[in-house]
C-alpha cells in the first residue's frame, strides 16, 4: 500500500512517501479500514518532532483522525462487516494508545484498528466531514457544550478561532444562540469566521484583544449600576502563554474561562486576586468522550454543523499540507485523501 512513514523524530522534510509499504492484516478483534479521509492535527507535528515522556514506536504511520470503509474483518469481530462506513474514535481506552502516535494511523491507504474503536458512520455524512470531527471538534464540543454549557444570549470570545478547534467553537457557540466574538490573525480569516457564524471579529495581530473588549463592552467591574457588568461571559483560550492574563481581564464578574490546551505556553503568570475578586470560573476540558462524538455526527448529519475544511490533499501532498498547518495557514481542517 501507499503510506507516509516517519522513521525518526524530525521535521516535515523527514516524512517519507512509500509506494509499496506492507499491507496491514486483520488480526483477532481488529478490522482493516480503507482510509477515505484523514484529518491533520497539530498533535501530528508534536509526534513528528517528539514529545517529552511519550515514546513513539518507529517506524510509524501518523494520522489520528480516520474515516473510511471496512476492507477486512479479523477473527472474533461479529458486529462489523466488509463495506461498513466507519469513523474511528482514536483513543483506545483499553490500552491508552492514541492512533497515529503509538500505533499506525491514517496517513496510508489502509489502517488496522481494534473493532472497539469504531463508530458507525451514516450514509449521509461525508468521509471528509467525519474525519474532521474526533480530535478538534470532539475537543471543542466537550469544552463548549459538555463542560462549558454555553447559553443563549451570552457573549463568547474565542481566541485562535481559525483553527480546527476554534472554528468548531465558533459554530457551536452560534448554534447555542450566543453572541460570538472571534479573534484571528488576518482579516481574511476573520471574514471566513463571520461566514461560519461569528458576529464580530478582532485581529489580534493589529489590536490588543483585551482593550478591544473593554472598549466595546466596558471594563469588568464588581460594583456599580446593575451590580457590576462589563466584559464578556465566556473566553475560550486554548493557547495559554501571554494571552492568559488578558483573557481573565476580559471576563465579567462570575465569567467563565474555558481551556483545553496551552499551545503558546503552559505556565503563565496569574494574579490570583483578580480571580477571587471577580469570582471567575476557570474550567478545564480534557479531550472528548464518545458521547461527544456521537452528538457531533448527528449535528453534521442534520447539517446544523458544517466542518470547516481548508483543503483536500493527496497522500503524496501530505508534506505540503503539514507545511500549511505548521505555518498556521489552515482555516479549519486539512484533509488527506489516500485514494484520490
Q: Structural class of the secondary elements? A: alpha/beta
Major sheet summary line: 7 strands, mixed
How is the CATH topology of the largest domain named? Quinone Oxidoreductase, Chain A, domain 1
Large-scale geometry:
elongated
> Roughly how much helix do the residues carry, as a percent range?
25-40%
The total tally of domains equals 2
CATH architecture of the largest domain: Alpha-Beta Complex
Can you tell me the CATH superfamily of the largest domain?
Medium-chain alcohol dehydrogenases, catalytic domain
Q: Summarize the helix and strand pattern as letters.
A: EEEHEEEEEEHHEHEHEHEHEHEHEHE
Please report the total strand number as a whole number.
17
- Poorly predicted residue ranges: none
Describe this structure in a few short sentences:
This protein is an alpha/beta fold. The chain contains 10 helices and 17 strands.
Walkthrough of the structure:
The protein has ten helices and 17 strands. α4 (164-175) links the parallel β10 and β11. α3 crosses α4 (164-175). It starts with a strand and ends with a strand. With 340 residues, the chain is an alpha/beta fold. It folds into two domains: 3-132 and 307-336, Quinone Oxidoreductase, Chain A, domain 1; 136-284, Quinone Oxidoreductase, Chain A, domain 1. Helix content is 26%, strand content 24%. Strands 3, 4, 5, 8, 9, 16 and 17 form a seven-stranded mixed β-sheet that branches. A six-stranded parallel β-sheet has the order 12-11-10-13-14-15, sandwiched between helices. A two-stranded antiparallel sheet has the order 1-2.
Amino acid at each position: 500500500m501507499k503510506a507516509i512513514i516517519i522513521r525518526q523524530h524530525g521535521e516535515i522534510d523527514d516524512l517519507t512517501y512509500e509506494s509499496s509499504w506492507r499491507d496491514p492484516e486483520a488480526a483477532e478483534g481488529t478490522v482493516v479500514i480503507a482510509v477515505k479521509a484523514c484529518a491533520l492535527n497539530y498533535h501530528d507535528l508534536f509526534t513528528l518532532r517528539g514529545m517529552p515522556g511519550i515514546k513513539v514506536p518507529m517506524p510509524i504511520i501518523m494520522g489520528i483522525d480516520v474515516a473510511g470503509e471496512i476492507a477486512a474483518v479479523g477473527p472474533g469481530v461479529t458486529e462489523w462487516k466488509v463495506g461498513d462506513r466507519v469513523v474511528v474514535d482514536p483513543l483506545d481506552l483499553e490500552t491508552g494508545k492514541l492512533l497515529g502516535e503509538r500505533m499506525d494511523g491514517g496517513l496510508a491507504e489502509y489502517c488496522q484498528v481494534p473493532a472497539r474503536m469504531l463508530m458507525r458512520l451514516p450514509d449521509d455524512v461525508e468521509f471528509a466531514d467525519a474525519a474532521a470531527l474526533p480530535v478538534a471538534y470532539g475537543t471543542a464540543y466537550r469544552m463548549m457544550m459538555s463542560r462549558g454549557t454555553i447559553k443563549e444570549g451570552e457573549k463568547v470570545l474565542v481566541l485562535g478561532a481559525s483553527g480546527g478547534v476554534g472554528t468548531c467553537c465558533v459554530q457551536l457557540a452560534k448554534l447555542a444562540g450566543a453572541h460570538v466574538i472571534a479573534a484571528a490573525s488576518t482579516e481574511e480569516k476573520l471574514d471566513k469566521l463571520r461566514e461560519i457564524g461569528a458576529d464580530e471579529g478582532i485581529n489580534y495581530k493589529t489590536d490588543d484583544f483585551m482593550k478591544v473588549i473593554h472598549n466595546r463592552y466596558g471594563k469588568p467591574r464588581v460594583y456599580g449600576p446593575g451590580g457590576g457588568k462589563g466584559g464578556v461571559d465566556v473566553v475560550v483560550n486554548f493557547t495559554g502563554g501571554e494571552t492568559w492574563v488578558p483573557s481573565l481581564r476580559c471576563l465579567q464578574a462570575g465569567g467563565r474561562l474555558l481551556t483545553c490546551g496551552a499551545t503558546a505556553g503552559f505556565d503563565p503568570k496569574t494574579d490570583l486576586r483578580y480571580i477571587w475578586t471577580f469570582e471567575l470560573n476557570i474550567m478545564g476540558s480534557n479531550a472528548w468522550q464518545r458521547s461527544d462524538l456521537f452528538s457531533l455526527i448527528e449535528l453534521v448529519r442534520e447539517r446544523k454543523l458544517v466542518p470547516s475544511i481548508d483543503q483536500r490533499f493527496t497522500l503524496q501532498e501530505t508534506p505540503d499540507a503539514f507545511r500549511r498547518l505548521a505555518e498556521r495557514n489552515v482555516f479549519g481542517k486539512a484533509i488527506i485523501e489516500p485514494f484520490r
